[in-house]
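Hypothesis: this fold can be encoded by more than one sequence.
Test: take the structure tokens below, design a sequence, compare later.
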């Protein structure tokens, strides 16, 4: 978990503890507050020590439990402040994948240039519907979320219309491992590779493949997207990070430029994709 996120969570916990100890009706112990709220006592201490992320409902209950209901707005503002950057999958996917795709579509619609690095999958902007569907189903299983798969696929396909609008540029870097990964059925991957090869040479798309045999100056680590030098979106298993500070953006651009030095383009990129396609046929 990011240091900034953890520090913000701990700071919120300190404020929660202050409210408990200075309750208008007298200082409350953690056990007393837990009893008032009908919680296990460990939840109180986890929230105060920054070991658990509160929900808005938790904060409203806490403010009421310590007889300071007016403190809720302040607490909720603190929570929303750090959640705007660290977006947990548990919360984002509570209503399914479609709302997450809609949020992405809004950001992409405001963007002219996108730089993307994907080390394990084909970028969403270049996916076929079947490949995207397989991805959404895998993640729905992993997180135990609502299966709004068809709606999510349609939202992702609508985002790809951006590629066909003049003035846009999609600079995609993909590690060769991604074109071999059977995250879907072999027939679906074959169709996906055919589409990927067909994108090479498109005027709004620059597709680079980093071969497995390429010399790397840095490890091929987690995927990320840079939108117009104003926003970086990257993800881990627990959360998606939206970073808009200048230092973070500059770091990710350096990483992207460094990875780009190991990529091949044009006919060479097509050859990497076609090798993966032939290997698939040989299975």
């Amino acid at each position: 978990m990011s240091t900034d996120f953890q520090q913000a969570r701990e700071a919120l916990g300190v404020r929660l503890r202050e409210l408990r100890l200075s309750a208008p009706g007298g200082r409350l112990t953690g056990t007393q507050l837990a009893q008032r709220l009908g919680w296990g006592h460990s939840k109180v201490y986890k929230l105060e020590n920054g070991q658990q992320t509160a929900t808005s409902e938790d904060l409203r209950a806490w403010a009421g439990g310590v007889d300071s209901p007016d403190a809720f707005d302040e607490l909720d503002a603190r929570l929303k402040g750090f959640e705007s950057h660290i977006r947990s999958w548990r919360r984002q996917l509570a209503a399914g994948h479609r709302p997450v795709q809609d949020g992405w579509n809004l950001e992409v619609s405001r963007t002219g240039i996108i730089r993307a690095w994907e080390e394990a999958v084909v970028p969403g902007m270049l996916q076929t519907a079947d490949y995207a569907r397989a991805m959404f189903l895998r993640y729905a299983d992993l997180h135990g979320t609502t299966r709004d798969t068809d709606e999510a696929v349609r939202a992702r396909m609508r985002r790809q219309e951006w590629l066909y609008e003049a003035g846009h540029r999609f600079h995609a870097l993909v590690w060769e491992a991604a074109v071999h990964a059977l995250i879907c059925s072999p027939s679906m991957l074959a169709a996906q590779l055919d589409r990927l090869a067909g994108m090479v040479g498109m005027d709004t798309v620059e597709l680079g493949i980093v071969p497995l045999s390429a010399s790397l100056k840095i490890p091929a680590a987690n995927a990320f997207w840079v939108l117009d030098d104003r926003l970086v979106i990257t993800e881990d298993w627990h959360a998606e990070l939206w970073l808009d500070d200048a230092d973070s953006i500059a770091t990710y651009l350096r990483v992207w430029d460094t990875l780009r030095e190991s990529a091949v383009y044009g006919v060479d990129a097509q050859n990497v994709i076609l090798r993966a396609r032939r290997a698939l046929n040989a299975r």
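The chain has a mean pLDDT of 92. The chain has two domains: 3-84, 88-281.
Hypothesis status: open.
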